[in-house]
Amino acid sequence: MDPLDDLAAALRDRLVRDAADGDAADRIRELVAREAGILDEDSRAELERRVAERSFGLGPLEPLLADPAVDEVMVSGAGRVWVEREGRVEPAGVAFASEVALRHAIERILAPLGRRVDEAEPLCDARLPDGSRVNVVIPPLALDGPALTIRRFRRRGLSPAELVERGSWTAPLHDLLAAAVAARLNVLVCGGTGSGKTTTLNALSAFIGAAERIVTIEDAAELRLQQPHVVRLEARPASLEGRGEVTIRRLVRNALRMRPDRIVVGEVRGAEALDMLGAMSTGHDGSLSTVHAGSPAEALRRVATLALMAGVGLPHEAIAEQIASAIDLVVHQARRPDGSRAVVEVAEVVRGAGGAPAARAIYTLRGERPRRRPARRDDLGEVLG
Length: 385
Description:
single chain; Beta-Lactamase; 3 domains; elongated
């Protein structure tokens, strides 16, 4: 380790041990002057910065969070920090000096948010003031030391044109999705973790007209819609006392009373799937959402499973009927081996054997070659071509 880092850690411990009133910056300056006066001026200034970073910032994570190219920061115990840049996970080249230092950083993240982790509650999800998502797992659940994951918030979502430039969308796909959203088709985006579902959902919203009233519902607010009439709702976890939780399902049901032209649900992951299907099939055409699934067919099965979690006693056949009538298109987003992300399939939802919903591909991407075929459903064929 850099000797200056060793000294900064020691001085930080001294600062905590000798806590006193007064301006923190002045106390750090005095401590450095007293304990490291032999260093030149530039080294003392750098030492002051590192002590302050360890006292009030996030230590070695600070430069990573200041780097706009970093999309995700992953800490796996003391000494192991990884980052994701442009879809590739790589060592960050920084480390925490000890597990204690890592725990201090976690406390500095969670304390201002009114959250905490301890042996009684070793898991925590939170959102930083800038919108970044934080997940913390500590021992005894995390066997190799505290695990901290920070998903960076992108202040401005990528536009459809930018996704075409990056190769995530092809030009034919851009036109297909633009027509689908303009025609108020209900679209479900599916894909794995980190595949870019939210990015695609945000880009799809760009095709919604400026005169429409849109209600967005998210577990952690990430969408950045550009329309002037947008109402943003965010779920709330229970407090430390176990009270005050507001679920996605409750927000979806409440949104129906807010006179929305469209409802955008950031991700369906529970019983709210049933309420979303009801909204899509009862006058809120053009709604958008995402779900974790590895293919369009799997996405339909997963939505059915989640809807059953509502516990209202509906038979599976009734839920299958709702899915077939509510969802028009499923857009499958995938992460490629090189880390890039792309929409690899768009499927129309048709009725299969016995009226059950089935996914039929109308757009596929194999390698770099997109392929289109006409929709089987007459109503989709009229608007999609």
